[in-house]
Amino acid sequence: YRAGVLGRRPRVPADFGELERLARRASSAVAWAYVAGGAGEGRTMRRNREAFERWAIVPRMASGAVERDLSVELLGQRHATPLLLAPVGAGALMGDDSDLHIARAAAATGTTYVLSNQGCNPMEDCAAAMGDASRWFQLYWSKDEGLVDSLIGRAEAAGAGALVVTLDTTVLGWRPQDLNLGSLPFSRGVGIAQYTSDPRFRQIVAERLGRPAARPQVTLGALRTLLAMSRNHPGRFLANLRSPVPRASVETFLDIYSNPGLSWDHLATLRERTRLPIVLKGILHPDDARRAFDLGADAIVVSNHGGRQVDNAVASLGALAGIREAVGPGPALLLDSGIRSGADVFTALALGANAVLLGRPYMYGLALDGQRGVEDVIRNVIAELDLTMALAGTPDIASITRDRLTHT
Ligand code: FNR
């Protein structure tokens, strides 16, 4: 903030509109369709933003506080701020070694990074890049129960502070932008690094082939995706070309990465399968929220997956207050989908969230300036939250309450 006031022009714009515009310019059509796109006609994505417009902050004056304390306690751990990085798969579309850059940026800013099950670097490599910094691991419930256990075991060994199970993607949503370009990244092997680095997954591939995993085959589709990715990192094109993912791995991934039959009975087995705190992500109905906590979940994420799964779904922010009312003041609620600024974080906290996750904005920072770009986006959101708290008369997170808002 000071640097900006003193006249240094940042590489990453301080407002979301400009950030989005520049990131789009820096990205291929294929990468932009996947990362920025949403389900169907984009109504859920738009509604996520409109929901924030329905609320206005009512600043209170002369609180007398000089400093703000942005820290929060989540799952028994102190976090420097109520902002976490959401799990985002196929990040390599926005730049090579995406997850390593994000991991380093998270560590440098003291922000918890939720590693995606569909990440582009093995979780062990991300953990090594983060040292002692806080990370959680996000799991899609595979059709193969052995793979579920293997991924959980690896997350524990890689120092994850929580296991986030995403419930809203038992099948992939209807995403016309990707379909029209014929460009879903997973079908080209982008975003399957947690799988190809997994012993149980490799065993499944080998069993299917009846022999150890075969030589890589470069398909036309894979070439197209590699070309699209190399727009962000031209020097890496040849290196990527030399180590393409075998087609059998991609096909196996598509078959088993998620279980369309996922039920509360599956989730009921979680408690005895891991010692990690359990977070269930993708909940929008108060009854599902209650059920999650009855089952022993430690937290939930109120989320519609950034508007990427069900078109014309309820906004995450729209669902939040009802869920808080249903579960009472105690349980930990996180929110994502549509957070774009510090003022948005303030609004979500006032409506009952304990913390929020940021998705696309940090990916846009990555597209513009790698690790530094991610750091800038995080710092901008936190700085604006800090200033909003200063100007609204809320010296700490606990003082951001419902009565700080009014309907517009
Ligand atoms: C996601 N999201 C997601 N969620 C998840 O649980 N596992 C994943 O692998 C992914 N992958 C993913 C890829 C991309 C490109 C996007 C944009 C999103 C959803 C993500 O965690 C989060 O819920 C939303 O991104 C939050 O909404 P905003 O901040 O993007 O509006």
Automatic annotation (TrEMBL):
Cofactor: FMN
Domain FMN hydroxy acid dehydrogenase positions: 8-408
PANTHER family xref list: FMN-DEPENDENT ALPHA-HYDROXY ACID DEHYDROGENASE PB1A11.03, S -2-HYDROXY-ACID OXIDASE-RELATED
Entry GO MF terms: FMN binding; isomerase activity; oxidoreductase activity
A Pfam cross-reference name: FMN_dh
Positions of glyoxylate binding: 34, 140, 175, 305, 308
Active site: 305
Protein keywords: Flavoprotein, FMN, Isomerase, Oxidoreductase
Signal peptide: none
Entry's family note: Belongs to the FMN-dependent alpha-hydroxy acid dehydrogenase family.
Taxonomy, superkingdom: Bacteria
Organism encoding this protein: Paractinoplanes atraurantiacus
UniProt keyword Isomerase, yes or no: yes
Gene3D superfamilies (alphabetical): Aldolase class I
Residues noted as binding FMN in the record, renumbered to the chain: 87-89, 116, 138, 166, 281, 303, 336-340, 359-360
Protein name: FMN-dependent dehydrogenase, includes L-lactate dehydrogenase and type II isopentenyl diphosphate isomerase
